[in-house]
Amino acid sequence: MSKPKVFVTRAISEKGFELINDFCDVDLWMDDLPPSREDLLQRVRGVDGLLCLLTDRIDGQVMDASGQQLKVISNFAVGFDNIDINSATARKIPVGNTPDVLTDATADFAFALILSVGRRLMEGERYVRNGQWKTWGPMLLLGIEMKGATLGLVGFGRIGKAVARRAMGFDMRVIYYSPHEKKPDPDINATRVDFETLLEEADIISLHTPLTTETRHLIDSEAISKMKPTVVLINSSRGSVVDLDALYEALKFNRIFGAGLDVTEPEPLPLDSPLLTLDNIVIMPHIASASKTARDKMSWMAAKNLIAGLEGITCQIVSIHRCINDLLTQGLRPCMSKLFFYNFLSLT
Ligand code: DGY
Predict the structure, then answer these.
(1) Is the CB of 294 under 6 A from ligand 1?
(2) Residue with CA nearest ligand 1 atom 1
(3) Alpha-carbon torsion 108, 113, 114, 119, what sign?
(4) Which residue, judged by its Cα, is nearest atom 4 of ligand 1?
(5) How far is the C-alpha of 106 from the C-alpha of 255, rounded, in Å?
(6) In this model, does residue 186 exceed pLDDT 60?
(7) pTM
(8) Which among 56, 95, 106, 297 is the best mutation to test ligand 1's pocket, defined by most ligand atoms within 8 Å of the CB?
(9) Hey, which of 34, 112, 118, 163 would disulfide with 144, CB 3.0 to 4.6 Å?
């Protein structure tokens, strides 16, 4: 019997790629850069499955270019704003993502940004390398103390909660804004507040919300004007949640203390962006989930989603035992039971 044809839009770790290769006839995009729109439209033609990245815009045109045989779209990311879910649903194509497996890596990184900006690590590093370090100074590179600071989390899903857990270890007060009531978590001491209160009270604001029409430019000049002048703003969600022109103005005139961005609008940030002229910002190339462990698990999960979709399974909670064995055979340590939920977003 012939194997299902799939297009994989970038090389992923072997943890998942080997599964796909065993089960499918794979067309792998080998370049380091994503396929152009033209290449994407051409290479999806006739495939049964598509494994794509957040750098690929997957809309109705791509789905139609592929053809009616397309059975599944598996996104190698937890965020799925690059995929037009409505178009997929209309065509009855299940879409998978990779929740949970990158929660800790991303929360660690958000915290790394909090500390980098709050304690001015990058500025200190530049100071040393530039030969400016002449002596110990009582007023040198003063930053923000974590203990007792109020951390405001925008979004209180898996990653927001994981950041809250880390903050508790630093004796911070945690408040969060979420448009939806969240089930109380007995291990996390955090208070739900409205958006305005969060902006006004937080010493550190960390964004963990998906990108939707409601959250695009949620952090604009008006939101920034309500923040404390000493606030640190961190974004490891999606670049478009922050209006970068407004952020630049605020940072330039020290209306806020600093910012740490793992994500920007656009990506990559153009080299002539004025943000790159500022000292009070740390900008990273969208690497919050880039631990080896997380990327291996994302690869494995994206592969499993792709194969499940090809097999016609659109929503399932697979037997935990079977999956734990699967994971161990792959040399991966299971993290949470939810890992085994193949999250098909569009048809459930
Ligand atoms: C995601 O998965 O959505 C991240 O942005 C990349 O890991």
Answers:
(1) no
(2) 77
(3) positive
(4) 77
(5) 27
(6) yes
(7) 0.91
(8) 106
(9) 118
Q: pLDDT per residue over 82-123, tens digit each?
A: 999 999 989 989 899 998 999 999 999 999 999 999 999 999
Indicate the SS3 state at residue 85: helix
Q: How far is the CA of 103 from the centre of ligand 1 (A)?
A: 10
Catalogue all structural domains in the chain, each as residue range(s) with its CATH number.
5-101+292-329 (3.40.50.720), 103-283 (3.40.50.720)
Q: How far is CA 152 from CA 203, 247, 256, 342, in A?
A: 7, 18, 15, 31
Q: Hey, which residues are catalytic here?
A: 238, 267, 286
> Quick one: tokens of 28?
């792998």
Q: How far is C-alpha 280 from the geometric centre of its chain's CA atoms?
A: 23
Is residue 62 within 8 Å of residue 70, measured between CB atoms? no
Q: Looking at the CA of residue 77, tell me the nearest atom of ligand 1.
A: 2
**Which of 82, 102, 295, 345 to mutate to test ligand 1, by most ligand atoms within 8 A of the CB atom?**
102
Instruction: Please count the CA atoms within 13 angstroms of the CA of 24 that sit on its side-chain side.
Output: 28
CB neighbourhood size of 101 (10 A): 25
> How much is the pLDDT for 345?
54
- Ligand 1 centroid to residue 289 C-alpha, Å: 6
Q: Are 163 and 113 in contact (CB under 8 A)?
A: no
Does residue 102 have its Cβ closer than 6 Å to ligand 1?
yes
What is the token pair recorded at 20?
């796909």
Residue type, 45: R
Q: What's at 82, amino acid-wise? A: N
pLDDT, residue 347, reads 55
Q: Are 246 and 220 in contact (CB under 8 A)?
A: yes
Residue-level pLDDT at 40? 98
* Closest ligand 1 atom, residue 238 Cα: 5
Give me the residue label for tokens 């072997």: 14
Instruction: Taking residues 11-26, report their average pLDDT.
Output: 97
User: 210-226, pLDDT tens digit by residue?
Assistant: 999 999 999 999 999 99
For residues 96 and 78, what is the distance between their CA atoms, to the nearest angstrom?
9
Scan for tokens 């997929």, then name that residue.
Answer: 88
Q: Which residues contact 212 (CB under 8 A, 6 or more apart)?
A: 81
